[in-house]
Design a protein that fits this description.
Length: 698
């Protein structure tokens, strides 16, 4: 039942914000007429050093923004992957004229915003302070200091960030998808690793700066309370004498899609969902004759909550919280991808449904209503976007960079509204490819792989860095690989844990536990009591002041949850989940009760601490991946699921700050995170075998 806590508390905190909203979802809004679009062309001029300047006057507010973007195209980094990004961060670490502290102070004094990055920089300030802000941006781009201490700091932070994503199924799936689609050795398929970053030195950063920070192929855009004459004078003073390496746009060979659709699988045993990406490479430059029809086709397939994918995978089948598609565009080859984060036991079914909707698009199974809604979306969003003056500048630079007709955006809605049902069928047949696709999945192989075989596609296995995995000990179905047990078993991990917290004999003596807990969340403070008693009885009550905001009670066979004055019985599924904890210390039952299935998954890390990863299949069928410290034997982290609105959602639980309570060593800080909502419990007082009775669970 502890897994239900985060769901109920989130509802308590959020439900009042939605209580007054009433929407008739049975009727879709009628599509309005396409708005008339009038776009004023910006003033454009070019400096002798190759910098193109665009000026959009708007004197409505006394503010000016400028952004400089260097169009270098995809940059291959190879064994130095991560270098250009690190170089961009180093641009913000002070100049040869001003330390970082002085630079930041100068920006703050005038209330400006100045940013520097690997492809340029930006400055924004009130009109009277804009010249100072602009010159600060120019100083940062032209005269970076590149101090060694800053390099060491940012390099370390980059490595820390990479470590934090080591077990993230979404990050793994995205990385492998790009690497396999474009090729690991290409600029668009390579990725940054701890190894590539560790090999970087400060000289690499300085060399990257010389190669890519240059006025060549740069576009400087002014928007706001400034005249073209003033912008030209400002630009000439700041950048007129700036020179650098001449850039040329790289020519990137086209990559072929797979000869036949294949499944590329990455085993992430700790993942409680399967990250699913289905798609293929496309060539879709913005001057493509199919560009506008493809925008509409993608919108209908997976562009939002009214799309085919969303309505199928979420509304009809309940496989996911959302499923979407994206169609890339631009001068280089890009990806069409349909994706979803899916319940592990439904990844195969979700894959089949995604292909079903792709085939519906290719077969022309699209209604006029779907087409009208998609057009209305673009009519509204395009018109709304034009209220932002910077959009005009963006459109103008897009026209220059992508070699588009000058009236591309002036006729944008005209072309959107001319798209027909036949156009949608035609472009879907060309660009949404079910026969030469990649199905990239990252998730728990023991749950997902056996069911994938029914789809009939060949399955290729890869590690988290897109390297092929060769099965050393395949079973009859060809889906299992040999496991490295490191001479330790699941039962040994549990025995070690019980010994670490005080010994099995002492654990057996514990029949009840009473705890005083505190919680600070979303600006509010809660106090509460948590009680447990064998066999499997649990109670939690949280108060804000004297008011009970949430209470949950389970007597071992039934129970209820209460939010304010509202009270409801636990559902059958919630009861089964609550029964997973058969006692105060559930690990004791992992090795004495046959209802639990345990399996050792290998080693891992939590922060910088080495761990043994233990898979526990609970009596309810729910899976828990638990990480126990190699050094201390203590439980550090758990990844599992919890029930929310009848569906399982992924949850992470961290156990910290173990302290002695009687004869046992117990965690006093337990943080649960589900769906991005973090709940940090602090146990202020814990009592064993006192203060608990049957009456607490009625």
């Amino acid at each position: 039942m502890k897994k239900v806590i985060i769901v109920a508390l989130s509802i308590v905190l959020l439900q009042h914000g939605f209580a007054q909203i009433k929407v008739d979802r049975s009727k879709k809004p009628a599509a309005g007429p396409a708005p008339a679009i009038s776009i004023k062309d910006p003033v454009i001029f070019t400096l002798p050093n190759g910098m193109t300047v665009l000026v959009v006057e708007n004197h409505k507010f006394p503010k000016v923004s400028a952004s400089l973007n260097i169009d270098a195209g995809p940059i291959p980094e190879g064994k130095r992957a991560g270098l250009v990004n690190l170089m961009g961060q180093m641009l913000g670490e002070g100049t040869t004229n001003m330390s970082k502290d002085k630079f930041d102070e100068a920006v703050d004094i005038i209330g400006a915003e100045v940013s520097l990055y690997a492809s340029g920089g930006s400055a924004s300030a009130l009109t009277r302070y804009f010249e100072k802000a602009f010159n600060l941006m120019a100083d940062g781009l032209k005269n970076p200091a590149f101090p060694q201490a800053s390099f060491d700091k940012l390099k370390s932070l980059t490595i820390t960030g990479l470590k934090s994503n080591e077990k993230s199924a979404p990050a793994i799936a995205a990385r492998v998808n790009a690497a396999l689609s474009y090729g690991k050795q290409t600029a668009m398929g390579e990725f940054t690793t701890e190894e590539t970053v560790k090999g970087l030195i400060l000289k690499d950063v300085k060399d990257a700066y010389k190669n890519y920070i240059t006025p060549s192929r740069s576009y400087l855009t002014f928007v706001g309370d400034i005249t073209p004459a003033a912008a030209k004078e400002l630009t000439t003073k700041a950048f007129g004498r700036w020179s650098g390496k001449k850039l040329s746009l790289p020519v990137i060979p086209l990559v072929k899609n797979p000869a036949k659709t294949e499944i590329d699988f990455v085993d992430v045993p700790t993942a409680v969902q399967g990250e699913l990406n289905v798609g293929n490479l496309v060539s879709n430059p913005m001057n493509n004759k199919d560009y506008h029809a493809l925008l509409i086709a993608n919108q209908i397939l997976g562009g939002g909550a009214e799309s085919k994918l969303f309505m199928n995978l979420r509304e009809k089948h309940g496989f996911t919280y959302g499923s979407y598609s994206r169609i890339g565009s631009g001068r280089f080859q890009s990806l069409f991808t349909a994706s979803a984060a899916v319940r592990s036991d439904k990844v195969d079914s979700a894959t089949a449904e995604i292909f079903s909707e792709i085939l519906n698009m290719r077969d022309g199974k699209i209604t006029q209503e779907e087409l009208d809604i998609a057009k209305a979306k673009y009519n509204g969003s395009f018109a709304l976007g034009m209220e932002d003056p910077s959009r005009t500048a963006t459109y103008a630079s897009n026209i220059l960079i992508n070699n588009l007709p000058k009236d591309f955006y002036k006729t944008f809605l005209q072309k959107i509204n001319s798209v027909s049902l036949n156009d949608l069928k035609r472009v879907s047949g060309i660009y949404f490819n079910e026969n030469h696709s990649r199905i990239v999945i990252a998730g728990n192989g023991s749950v997902i792989l056996p069911k994938l075989l029914r789809l009939g596609y060949p399955v290729k296995k890869f590690d988290r860095y897109a390297n092929p995995v060769i099965d050393k000990a395949a079973d009859v179905k060809g889906i299992e690989t040999a496991k490295n047990t490191n001479s330790i078993s699941a039962s040994e991990i549990i025995e070690t844990y019980l010994k670490a917290i005080g010994g099995k004999d002492e654990v057996k003596k514990v029949t009840s536990m009473s705890s005083v807990i505190g919680l600070d969340m979303m600006g509010r403070s809660f106090e509460g009591v948590e009680k447990k008693m064998n066999p499997g009885m649990q109670m939690l009550e949280l108060k804000m002041g004297t008011m009970t905001v949430m209470k949950m009670v389970f007597n071992g066979t039934s129970g209820f949850q209460q939010q304010g004055p509202q009270k409801k019985d636990l559902s059958e599924k919630e009861i089964k989940e609550a029964q997973d904890d058969k006692g105060v210390i559930p690990q004791l039952y992992y090795i004495t009760d046959g209802a639990y299935k345990t399996d050792y998954l290998g080693t891992g890390k939590v922060d910088d601490e080495d761990t043994y990863r233990l898979k526990v299949v609970m009596p309810s069928g729910r899976t828990s991946i638990q990480e126990y410290s190699v050094k201390t034997g203590l439980l550090l982290k758990e990844e599992t699921t919890s029930i929310q609105e009848g569906a399982d959602i992924p949850m992470t639980i961290e156990y910290k700050n173990y302290k002695k309570t009687g004869a046992l060593l117990l965690p006093t800080e337990i943080t649960r995170n589900a769906g991005g909502q973090e709940i940090p419990f602090k146990y202020k007082e814990i009592k064993l075998n006192e203060g608990v009775s049957d009456a607490d669970f009625k």
